[in-house]
Each structure stands twice: as C-alpha cells, then as structure tokens.
Predict the 3D structure of the following.
Amino acid sequence: MDQITLPIEGLLEGQTALVTGAGRGIGRAVALYLAKAGASVGVSDIDATSAERTAGEIREGGRKAIAVAGDVSSDASRREMVAATERAFGPIDVLINNAGIMQVIDLFDLKESDWDRMLSINAKSVFFLSQLVLPGMVARKKGAIVSLASAAGKAATGTKYLHYNVSKAAVIAMTKTMSQAVAKDGVRVNCVCPGIIDTDMWAQIDREQGVQMQGMAQGEWMNQRLGQVPMGRAGTVQDVARVILFLASPLAGYMTGQAVNVTGGWITY
Ligand SMILES: NC(=O)c1ccc[n+]([C@@H]2O[C@H](COP(=O)([O-])OP(=O)(O)OC[C@H]3O[C@@H](n4cnc5c(N)ncnc54)[C@H](O)[C@@H]3O)[C@@H](O)[C@H]2O)c1
C-alpha cells in the first residue's frame, strides 16, 4: 500500500463489500482500501490463489475478508460470490465491479467469439451481478455500486481493441440507467474511467501492441501514450482505488449516475 495517510478509518465501518477481480491490480488496491475504511470484504477473482492472497493481506491488517473464487461471466459463480460474502458478513452494501479483460487485436481480425467473450466478462457480468445485489439494497434503502469503465469507453483511445472500448461504453450506459432506477431508494450507482494505470493489464497492452505488433522495445509504446497525459505519468492502482473508495462512501452521498475520469488530465469530459 502507498504511503499517503488518509483519514478513512471508519468511513465504511460495519459495511459488507464485494470486489470482483480483487486478486491483483486495481481490484486488490480497492479491496485493501475498503477494508481499511472498515468494511468486511468478499474478495473474488477467477484466480483462487490471488484471491486468497488479498484476503490474507486484509486479515493480517486486522480486518475481515473471505476469498471467493469465481468467474464473473458465469451465472452460478456470480450467485456464489454474493451468497458466500453475505453468509460470512451479512447483506452487501458495496459492490465493486472491477474484474475485466483486455485483448489486443486489429478490428479487421476481430472474431465474433472474441466479441462475445469480451462483452460477457466486461459488460454483461457487470449488469447481472448488479442485478443480484440491487433488490436487497433497495429494500434496505442503502447501497453503492462502483464499476470499472475506462477512458476507452468515452474516447477513441486505441484502434486495436474495439470490443474492449464497446464493453466499457456499455458499462457507462448501464451505470446511468441503473442509477436512475434506484436513485430514490438511497442506492447510488457510479463508475470510474481510468486512463493509463500501471498494472499487468497495461503491461499486456504494451507487449501485444508495442512489442509484438510494432516491433518496439518493451515500455516504448506505453511511454508514447504517456506523452498524451498532462500529468506526464501513469496512474497507480491507489490513484484509482482512492476515487472508488470515495464514490462507495457517504462522502459521495449526492453523486450517482456518474462516470468519473481518473486519467491525469488526459480525458476532460
Ligand atoms: N490498467 C488500466 O490502465 C485500466 C484502465 C481503464 C480501466 N481498467 C479496468 O480496471 C479493471 C481492473 O484492471 P487491472 O488493470 O487491475 O487489470 P488486471 O488484469 O491487472 O487485473 C484484473 C483481475 O481480474 C481478474 N479476472 C479476469 N477475468 C475474470 C473473470 N472472468 N472473473 C473474475 N475475475 C477475473 C484477473 O484474474 C485479475 O486478478 C478492469 O475492468 C479494467 O478493464 C484498467
């Protein structure tokens, strides 16, 4: 965890959170922050070992967490991650739809199976997992959902992952619609749009698009992209996780239906 001292203790005291894709990257950082803020966390990931690792880190920090292995694109898995988290800690107050994949492929080569897999994991799962927790949140008049969209859902950030861009635009669209359906019930639904964040996913883009497609040195393509970022650096997972924590917390009590950029100034709308 980074060294920034935040007065976040107690912000989510007594709440139950479920974070998907929390074995590494942004999801792991979010799970650690939510726990630090007092939430008990269901740490879900398709990779059981990494989910266990994050849950262990939270418990070492004196907070509560369980690991739930599961694939967000499977209905049975989604039901199990919700049920296991609620069995352990009670009804879910905070859902973070973070799990996602990237695939670098030219749009002229994109196959229907690529499209279906991308949309299933990055978009369809966000809606159907939200649909599982929303009725309980509405009944209790309390809850917050934050999903991971992307700058790629707003701007033409790259031509080699059209289906990824579409999946993230879909997350923005469903966030707006879901937020309106539950706004009067004390439930808030928002998403974040990160830009270039230093994670394994970004390393994959650099490798597949820069090194393999264009013969660049490792890191060269990413450095070129960073030239477009006014702050001149990649974001850290903590940069994104702090905004997600804010949106999930009562500090953002009058915010819903928003797609909040975390891009170092790259995207301004
Ligand atoms: N890194 C960036 O620059 C960036 C920018 C914008 C948006 N995002 C979004 O943020 C989210 C997290 O990205 P990251 O960079 O931390 O990625 P990452 O690849 O480092 O981590 C993603 C995690 O999701 C898990 N996962 C993948 N498929 C899954 C599935 N079907 N079911 C459950 N878990 C699954 C992986 O095992 C992994 O732990 C993603 O939705 C991504 O699209 C990332």
Observations:
- Helices lie at 25-36, 48-60, 75-89, 112-140, 162-182, 200-214, 220-226, 237-248.
- The first helix runs from residue 25 to 36.
- Residues 20-21, 23-27, 45-47, 50, 71-73, 98-101, 121, 148, 150, 194, 196-197, 199-202 surround nicotinamide-adenine-dinucleotide (CB under 6 Å).
